[in-house]
Design brief:
- The protein is α/β, with parallel strands linked by helices.
- About 35% of the residues lie in helices and about 20% in strands.
- Strands 1-8-7-6-5-4-3-2 form an 8-stranded parallel beta sheet.
- α6 packs parallel to α7.
- It binds D-xylitol-5-phosphate and zinc ion.
Length: about 220
């Protein structure tokens, strides 16, 4: 059985409540905290700052999964690596051609972190497949990046399946992460399609039954 991991996204959490949100998911066994970074160029608005990250990093001891939705991935990656991020994912669409993308993967890896690349919903999965052997993780966006609380786009399942087939056929260790609109139903569907890591924001946070929600998805995936 393939393990499933939950990467709780802090985007929807009020900045004053971050510590208690993190405590809850870490107590439930979360091994990753998903940290969304946006700039005014790639997204049009900002989310967390570098200092927010340093504060969050001190709040837990699990892996910091930084999702860069920024037009200049390397400049941000340098700062997040310096501040202790373990995994840094940038967007395929942020860079102009494949040579620049490969250079960016190499440069981020040289910072001593794991590297991921992400595609937006309208980018065909075939664009990212050739990069899979170079990546520690691939992040399939199942909503338009920028906001939490959107509905899952079902086409994403096919993208996950295609990545899974390629990864398995080539005996790669690349993890498949999916982000956007993930709940107990869509999360289970993504796991069955081949996802390893489920990013979850609004499904988890702000609900009194967070523990039940978290466990429900783990149990559903463990039962196939
Ligand atoms: C959106 C972010 C997500 C967001 C997901 O651009 O990348 O990580 O927090 O939120 P939900 O789980 O609410 O779709
Ligand atoms: Zn994200």
């Amino acid at each position: 059985m393939r393990p499933v991991y939950i990467a709780p996204s802090l985007l929807s959490v009020n900045k004053n409540d971050l510590q208690s949100a993190i405590n809850q998911v870490v107590a439930l066994g979360a091994k990753f905290i998903h940290f969304d970074v946006m700039d005014k160029k790639f997204i049009g608005h900002e989310s967390f700052s570098f200092d927010d990250f340093s504060r969050v990093k001190k709040m837990h001891h699990v892996l910091n999964d930084v999702h860069l939705m920024t037009a200049d991935p390397y400049e941000y990656a340098k700062e997040y690596a310096k501040r202790g991020a373990e995994i840094i994912t940038f967007h395929y669409e942020a860079l102009k051609d494949d040579v620049t993308r490969v250079d960016c993967i190499d440069a981020i890896r040289k910072l001593g972190v794991k590297v991921g690349m992400s595609i937006k919903p309208r980018t065909p999965v075939e664009k990212i497949i050739p990069f899979l052997p170079m990546l520690d993780q691939v992040l399939i966006m199942s909503v338009e990046p920028g906001l939490g609380g959107q509905s899952f786009m079902p086409d994403s399942l096919n993208k996950i399946k295609k990545c899974r087939e390629y990864i398995d056929a080539n005996h790669l260790k690349t993890l498949i992460e999916v982000d956007g609109g993930i709940n107990d139903i869509t999360g289970h569907d993504c796991y069955l399609a081949g996802a390893d890591l489920l990013v979850m924001g609004t499904y988890l946070f702000g609900h009194a039954d967070l523990k039940d929600r978290y466990q429900k998805i783990i149990v559903a995936c463990q039962h196939g």
